[in-house]
Amino acid sequence: MVSKNQIKLITSLQQKKFRKQHKLFIAEGVKVIQELIDANYKLNDLFTTQNDFSNLKTGKIHAITQADLKKISALTTPNTCLATFSIPENIKIELNGLVLALDSIRDPGNLGTIIRLCDWFGIETLLCSEETVDVYNPKVIQATMGSISRVSIVYCNLENELKESKIPVFGTFMDGKSIYNESLPHEGIIVMGNEANGISSTIEKIVSERISIPRFGNLQLTESLNVATATAIILNEFKRPN
Amino acid sequence: MVSKNQIKLITSLQQKKFRKQHKLFIAEGVKVIQELIDANYKLNDLFTTQNDFSNLKTGKIHAITQADLKKISALTTPNTCLATFSIPENIKIELNGLVLALDSIRDPGNLGTIIRLCDWFGIETLLCSEETVDVYNPKVIQATMGSISRVSIVYCNLENELKESKIPVFGTFMDGKSIYNESLPHEGIIVMGNEANGISSTIEKIVSERISIPRFGNLQLTESLNVATATAIILNEFKRPN
So what CATH class is A4-86? Predict the structure, then answer.
């Protein structure tokens, strides 16, 4: 059973300002919810149409109908369960090893896919500029498939953070040096730019190493890669044995 | 000006059965439309709110209002123009060089992104199983950003096509050999599987080379990569100099 007030609260969490106000976010589906619980995210409420979480020792489970789930879900086709979790406090991070930084990524699906890539390649820290889409956006949470629990994601003034970096800052540009020819280190910050505009001019000035992914197709016509696939190729090049 | 019949026809093209019936598909935005025209796709009608295509020598341009464009657009935020193009006949292709094959990719965004990757890496032929999402789906067309005009896309009975292949057939599996250790040839068919289920058992039997992308993150927890990012990494490994 879900009350009118709960419906109002939960659907409001689809908007960033209410997530900020209530310090809560939503996650849907057994897999994503279970991964967040396992990673010690603080569960607030869990609404389920099935007996999915019977081993969960908490009084916060609410049995609801499919019709009620539809009222609170952010998905076109609701799953069997939805949970609200507390947004953790921003942690202070040390920039070492390989770090990925996002300069104004706007698409929730791209951010979710990039978080999965960080998880795959063992990148522990993801810096996001303040203009980057909110990681607690329901579309991002769903696209991460639970991997959000294994990557530290920090929103920051990217310019200030990068300026203070003691490790090299890499950025991808059309005129950069080929990633196939460079000896890529085990330590550095890799900046990926906005879907439409690439890396901003403010951040470009701080980049110490300009790199590029060589093209093999028609050089005059092929324009660009999607930012998530470009991130996949670059992380692969940094991590693969040479 | 757009007539009621035109609105009915154009919006019907968002569905595969009507695209098949009318042998037409829609594309939106100056960039995508211009690339299709340049690649000699047969333009049927062009509706525009601006003087975008003034150098186009055809009587098929219709000036319309933004309100009319909204009625025919498949986008949440319509662009300035929409065109209908004829669907080309399926061509007979020779399987040589590097070929990508999709075994039941369902997400339009993934297919669009994979077509951009083929264009980037100079993969000229993309085989799609009949269960793969239709390439003329408006969401695929938009996601390709025009690169569809530079890749030959063929829907086929993938099992039969692969069985007849004279070049090796590669498939990605968790237990495959690391792509970092294998010497990857310049000729072969690379099969990518469905988002949820991977490569089907029918196709798995035809795969001659089982490969895998090594993981660097927490080996027990990280589950999988998105199919488009996995394709990016694999094509990069096949094409990069060693």
Answer: alpha beta
